[in-house]
Amino acid sequence: MTANPLALAVNGREYQLFERLVPFTEHNGRTGEAIAVVGLGYVGLPTAYALAARGAAVTGFDISRGRLGEIRAGDVDLPDDQRLGLAGVLESGRLRLSDDPAALGAAESVIVCVPTPVDEDHTPDLSALRAACETVAEQARTGQTIILTSTTFVGTTRLLLAEPLRRRGMRIGTDVHVAFSPERIDPGNLDHTQRETPRVVGGVTSRCAQRAARVIRRSTDSVYLVSSPEAAELTKLYENIFRAVNLALANEIADVCHDLDLDPIEVTVAAGTKPYGFLGSFPGPGVGGHCIPCDPHYLLWQLRGHQVRAPMIEQAMTSIEQRPERVVDRVLEELADAGLAPGDARVAVVGVSYKAGVRDLRESPALPIITGLRRAGVDVDYHDPLVPEVRLADGSSLRSKPGGPDWDLVLMHTLHPGFDYGWASLCPLVLDATYQFDQAPHRKFV
């Protein structure tokens, strides 16, 4: 029996629902197809590399010459094998880099992969997305397939791509093909490769969906079609909203375990032995990165415009935002129990990137944790072998310190694979926000 690709807790009906999927089964397309990738960040660069590695002639477009210079120098946050492969496709010319918008007009297909952050008030920052779509629409030519992959609000593909193209006199589905296919890149996780991760495609017309799926099929073995760009846009939001709600619940269960003197990892793993109806997550110091702390706010922002509320999503995002404060409180509690006033204590935060194995600081809980501890009067340092320096919201900066026994308390925040953190056990107090650091017998959980 073929493995069922659906991860659903629906009381054993996954195999029935599998029949509702619409797989795209055509071949990957011809070698040498010209594809432009707009935006060469954490999504765009791996996408451009994957396409070039599988035979496409790729133009990587980015408005930042500094970013293009980093890519040429190999100074990028990619696994070692991909970094070596990147050098190969650059040297061979299968991947060309450009900051000239006119280069987009030569491509047969254009994939938009720009960031979609939120501001301090959790309002979507659409500046990069609007600018990229405007550029792509201006440079579009007859015969092109244009695919948006950036996570965004429902209706974006029509509003920022299809409508501007129509105003230029282009017929969608005939002259030019427009679709949305949400990215599913998991930075730092070698278990979830692009090739093995299914993708979803929704086109403005059925022909748009078919054309876009041929392009996306180059970088993955499985593509599924949905009825519209809007369905695909909400699919991605739902994926990340589910993750946000689940993580908020995991952190709450961890707090319950703290009060009941139980190990939340033991409880979660035990619950995970149930083969149906449970999809667990592990707790942590907070939720960072480019997706979970940001993407749900795109839907909440859109719903507010319709005067509609989503209270469960709202509460989950509030819980996520408040999690670093809980970690600060636990540090201060442990210091007080040891008889140390905040002004007399030295604390080190171990690992400051938002996720193990990456250098990315976006939305990292470590930054508000450090700020909160400093505000309380604690002398705070950090140690991170991947992040030599951090800049805080107040404009001050810190540099990574070597590991050692010199701190009163170490907070285990992010543990990068391949590094030894055994030195932390020499510190008198170890507070484990990863819930998985077992090298210090005296460690306590957040």
TrEMBL record:
SUPFAM superfamilies: 6-phosphogluconate dehydrogenase C-terminal domain-like, NAD(P)-binding Rossmann-fold domains, UDP-glucose/GDP-mannose dehydrogenase C-terminal domain. It comes from the Bacteria. The keyword Oxidoreductase applies. It holds the Pfam family UDPG_MGDP_dh_C. The keyword NAD applies. Residues 348-439 form the UDP-glucose/GDP-mannose dehydrogenase C-terminal domain. Keywords: NAD, Oxidoreductase. Belongs to the UDP-glucose/GDP-mannose dehydrogenase family. This is Nucleotide sugar dehydrogenase. It comes from Saccharopolyspora taberi.
